[in-house]
Amino acid sequence: MSDKKIIIYTPEEIEAMRDVCRRASELLDFITPYVKVGVSTLKLDELMLEHTEKVLEAKSACLNYCPSGMTPYPRATCISVNNVICHGIPSEKKILKNGDIVNIDVTIVKDGFYGDTSRMFIVGKPTIAGKRLVEATWGCMWAGIEAVKPGNCFNDIGIACQKFCAPLGLSIVHEYGGHGIGRVFHGEPHVSHVPLSIPTAKFEPGMVFTVEPMVNAGKRHIMDLNDGWTVVTKDRSLSAQWELQIAVTETGYDVLTASAGMREAPEWVKGWKKPVF
């Protein structure tokens, strides 16, 4: 990993980024009461696109997003249910049912800056396995975020995530990770949530990136569906993911994708406390 490619943002740029990041988190606040039994994932997507444009005065960064060699992404959000790891395409045929675990991943862009965050939702009455995985993944993400401090490097995120999940018998997906973000949707560095054997850059104030571990109840292995986007667990086990966008500070980190409706950090988190909105 070359630290020369990692953008260092000014305090003014980070404050501008904080605004769009707050709006992205507020989009998840908005959709929360609609995530219930009988609702299609397409309906949720349509509601979020309308809210993004008309209320948040922003644009979806996912709609028609098209990396080289891929087909354009057809919806405004990614909604991944149960054994879907990531990039679940909202569909009128996918109706939420009791006990489903659902990841809703949103990225919006406003005034040239991107805000990227995702949350887990449990539909109706939770299953024991579903609730356990959702809560463990929340803790895994925060373990990784807590590793962001002066003197540490990006590999410390993966070490912390793995240390958190291994005793629980859970596995972390290797093929996907966090990423640099700011004026670009996906930039340097790639943020691994498992330990790497190669050197990684040290944290510097002004770096901005996502921490977003994808944790499987079964094995870590993945499988792509034939729609060009959807990724599922190979063994059909449940998968969960949380995502926050953070900035490195002089003393540690700051969470940019924060809003009134987001969860409080776990009690054991020392580096950040949810602000009052």
Provide a descriptive summary of the structure in words.
With 277 residues, this protein is of the alpha+beta class. The chain has a single domain, classed as Creatinase/methionine aminopeptidase superfamily (Creatine Amidinohydrolase), CATH 3.90.230. It contains 4 helices and 15 strands. The strands form 5 sheets. Strands 1, 2, 4 and 5 form a 4-stranded antiparallel sheet that branches. Helix 1 (11-31) crosses helix 2 and helix 3 packs antiparallel against helix 4. The longest helix has 21 residues, at 11-31.
Q: Give the integer mean of the pLDDT values.
A: 96
- Summed up, the helix count is 4
Q: State the shape.
A: globular
Instruction: State the oligomer.
Output: single chain
Class based on secondary structure composition and strand pairing? alpha+beta
Fraction of residues in helix: 10-25%
User: What is the domain tally?
Assistant: 1
The CATH superfamily appears as Creatinase/methionine aminopeptidase superfamily
For the largest beta-sheet, the strand count, sense and barrel status come to:
4 strands, antiparallel
Task: Tell me the radius of gyration.
Answer: 17 Å
CATH architecture grouping: Alpha-Beta Complex
State the distance separating the first and last CA atoms: 37 Å
Determine and state the CATH class. Answer: Alpha Beta
Strand-and-helix sequence, N→C? Answer: HHEEEEEHHEEEEEEEEEE
Total beta strand runs? 15
Low-confidence stretches: none
Proportion of residues in β-strands: 15-25%
Per the CATH scheme, the topology name is Creatine Amidinohydrolase
